[in-house]
Amino acid sequence: MAQNCLEIKNLKMYFPVGGGLFRRSKKFIKAVDDVSFDIKENKVLGLVGESGCGKTTVGRTIVRIYNPSSGSIEYTKADGSKVDIAKLQHKKMHPYHKEIRMVFQDPFGSLNPRIPVKEVIAEPIVIHKMLARSEIENRVAELMQDVGLDPDYMNRYPHEFSGGQRHRIGIARALASNPRLIVADEPVSALDVSVQAQVLNLLETLRDEKGLTFLFVAHDISVVEHISDDIAVMYVGRIVEQAETEELLYHPLHPYTEALVSAIPVINSDKSKNRIRLEGDVPNPVDAPPGCVFHPRCRYAGPECSVSVPELREAGPGHQVACHNYDKITLRGI
Ligand code: SF4
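^ thats the input. predicted complex w/ iron/sulfur cluster below
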């Protein structure tokens, strides 16, 4: 059985609000609040939820753009030994920045417009001193081919490429340091559906050919369903359900997952009639409601739901849910 590439335990990322030079902040945005999950080697975990639910913060904390408030991020190195990267000082993160790479949502914003694509892609190779100068151009050509770009265009600038091609440049750059784990943050959300499919197919091929492990962050469950082995659903900083993809889509146990799944388009079906439209907005994580944070929007809420917080617990083999009533209600899958 494959071992875990990443084990996240009780991860918290709180951001102070207000306060000032001489005043400590008393309130916090609990962007990530006690999140735990594992990703097995060579597998894809899809992390989904509405915008502002904390999924991007999870990704950014894993690559240590943010310093976690508490919790552990245990990464299994190629030799099988483990390191808790949540505890490492920034200087000590250097080798892991090579092995754990992020693909950003907005490739245009993340690519320096003033340097040619050749240098954009080569940057991680140079930073990590991986190759001699004379070898870099060949490696860039190889990486461009891997992601379906013509190496003849390596001297062009990012603005000379289409949106889909810029995503491919971002992926080639992430691959340049031979990573083992990729955190892909909404990597296709800005693309047309047809281009989305091409980029998703590319990521899947790279996973298979290079043995990569992925955390795939997306707001749209229909984007992650085809590529993910497992899906974790987040709501206001917490994971509310996690299971193997098919199990989660066909047998959701959390009312929020049921609503997300009901929005998945099904060809030749009049499913739009059955779409569950949630009332109200996602609560502000600074002032989240007591008890189950989903209770103001939940049509199955009972009296206990506004009082006690449901813990994430095992509801079946490999299927975890945080709901007081999961065993009393029958929910609809796809
Ligand atoms: Fe709904 Fe209650 Fe379950 Fe929360 S705990 S999802 S409010 S039924």
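The CA atoms of residues 46 and 231 lie 5 Å apart.
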